[in-house]
Specification:
Layout lengths: L5 E2 L3 E10 L2 E8 L4 E8 L7 H20 L8 E7 L2 E7 L4 E2 H8 L4 H20 L2 E2 L8 E3 L5 E3 L6 E2 L20 H4 L6 H17 L9 H10 L9 H10 L10 H13 L23 E2 L2 E2 L53 E3 L15 E2 L21 E7 L14 H21 L5 E8 L1 H5 L12 E7 L12
Parallel strand pairs: 14-17
Antiparallel strand pairs: 1-2, 2-3, 3-4, 4-6, 5-6, 7-9, 8-11, 9-10, 12-13, 15-16, 16-18, 17-18
């Protein structure tokens, strides 16, 4: 029988709970106090440079020091730091729970009221950290543990930053998970309580929608989504959607603060009337508007969409504004052809079409940057996706919600308004996409029909209020990989 491993003559290793590239987490028994603990062992791969190893070790120690400064039921307690045989261990509170990312992956999107309760606990942990001068900097679903009874714990303060602590990177890079970083952090601003609240908003959206709102197929396209694409919220209740959108306000000076979020989350959990949100005063020159973002060596190609146009509803018409016809292979000029297409005819490049109930494409089930096997044809649905690394015909390369900050029962703004918005938006996104391809590409924008728009809150088959940009090879040959990123 193999002898049980004991660390520091105190912690007997019982079972492995998880393993990553940089270490192992064990279930252990504290033989001195007779309690179960989680023992995190730093175990970097062989050959790692001493400087990198020192950074990892310092992060582990920082996690212990940071958690030791906080006394909150939603913060995982660190009991002990051990150095033995050249390795570093943290003895921590054992949380018999799955993390939020795993829960969503295994069981699907979360109920809005349930998520509001979890978010309240995470918000309490962040409040305690912020009051102590600590910014977490890596709030995300995998760092929130949730027990079956709904009790939540915020974990991994390893990259948390305090005002009197130096950064943990020796090269000045940004530390964190790109899909959960706020636009202000990506612009180079210091991490702040407001950036933690943004990350909490992204986490809430991920949990209730079942997918991260900004996660894309590459770091570059993920950063572009954070900076330019409002979150698509189809499953969140109207009240929780209001909280999420408030936390995901691009301008940190106008972003919903912790007190406002708490009041609204409490109202959701208790089932009381929604709490009105008072907008914070707008400050001049603080709105984040960028054309490109750099993170380390990653630089986004092309200019970002210049901003969402002001809401000025126009009369509903059957076609959008016209412009000159395309003049080159990868032109972004739009077709002037408005003749109706017969059923089964392929939809034309650079000509706005409609999707959803009563549309040119009666059913559309792609999200994110997914691909589909069939071309767009008049009257035919797009029922589902295929892997983008397999042969496919079209790819959804961008999507946006023109009136994302408006109530979802707002009147349909009309095809003309949506077409005008979509032409500007898809043309900007296509320039970056075309620059990465050697092939001549066709692309178009599709907008929701009025019936699709009005069905947004349909409990069985909710409609969509976003506009979509679709790309394909101009010669209609199969695509062999993603065109995004």
């Amino acid at each position: 029988m193999q002898q049980q491993r004991v660390i520091a003559n105190r912690y007997a290793l019982v079972a492995e709970l998880g393993r990553g590239a940089m270490g192992v987490v064990w279930r252990a028994q504290d033989q001195l106090l007779g309690r179960a603990v989680a023992l995190k062992e730093l175990h970097p791969p062989q050959g790692m440079a001493a400087e990198e190893r020192n950074v990892l070790e310092e992060r582990m120690l920082r996690e212990a020091r940071t958690a030791g400064r906080l006394n909150h039921p939603a913060v995982v307690t660190v009991h002990d730091i051990i150095r033995e045989d050249g390795r570093t261990f943290l003895a921590m509170e054992l949380v018999d729970a799955a993390d939020l990312a795993t829960i969503v992956e295994r069981h699907g999107p979360r109920d809005s009221v349930w998520m509001a309760g979890v978010a309240l606990q995470a918000l309490g942990a962040l409040d305690a950290a912020h009051a102590a001068g600590i910014v977490h900097r890596d709030v995300k679903p995998s760092n929130i543990m949730v027990r079956p009874d709904g009790t939540a714990k915020l974990t991994d303060f390893g990259i948390a930053q305090t005002m009197d602590d130096p950064r943990l990177t020796h090269n000045g890079g940004i530390v964190g998970s790109p899909a959960y970083m706020s636009p202000d952090r990506l612009q180079g601003w210091e991490a702040s309580p407001a950036s933690d609240l943004w990350a909490l908003g992204v986490t809430m959206a991920h949990a209730v929608e079942g997918i991260s709102p900004f996660e894309r197929t590459s770091t570059a396209s993920t950063l572009h989504a954070v900076m330019n694409e409002p979150p698509v919220l189809r499953r969140a209740s109207p009240q929780l959607a209001e909280v999420i959108r408030g936390l995901l306000t691009v301008d940190p000076a106008r972003r919903m603060n912790a007190a406002q979020a708490r009041a609204m989350l409490v109202a959701i959990v208790q089932g009381t009337a929604p709490v009105p949100v008072q907008q914070q005063p707008k400050k001049n020159n603080t709105m984040v508007k960028v054309a490109a973002v750099a993170l380390g060596a990653v630089v986004l190609a092309g200019a970002a969409f210049a901003g969402y146009v002001a809401f000025k509803p126009k009369q509903n018409t059957a076609s959008g504004p016209t412009s000159s016809a395309p003049t080159s292979e990868n032109s972004t000029e739009w077709s002037t052809d408005t003749n109706p297409l017969p059923a089964g005819a392929p939809l034309l490049s650079r000509r706005i079409a409609t999707f959803g109930r009563g549309g040119d494409i009666p059913q559309w089930n792609l999200t994110g940057t997914e691909c589909a096997k069939d071309f767009l044809t008049q009257g035919a649905p797009v029922p589902g996706s295929v892997p983008c690394d397999k042969p496919h015909s079209i790819q959804l390369f961008a999507a946006a919600t023109p009136l994302w900050d408006k109530p979802k029962d707002i009147a349909y703004p009309g095809v003309e308004y949506l077409a005008d918005f979509t032409k500007k938006y898809c043309a900007e996104q296509f320039r970056a996409t075309a620059s990465r391809s050697k092939d001549a590409l066709g692309f178009t924008g599709i907008v929701p029909t009025e019936q699709e728009w009005k069905a947004y809150n349909d409990p069985t088959t909710p409609g969509r209020q976003e506009v979509l940009c679709v790309v394909w090879k101009q010669d209609r040959a199969p695509l062999a990989g993603t065109l995004v990123g």
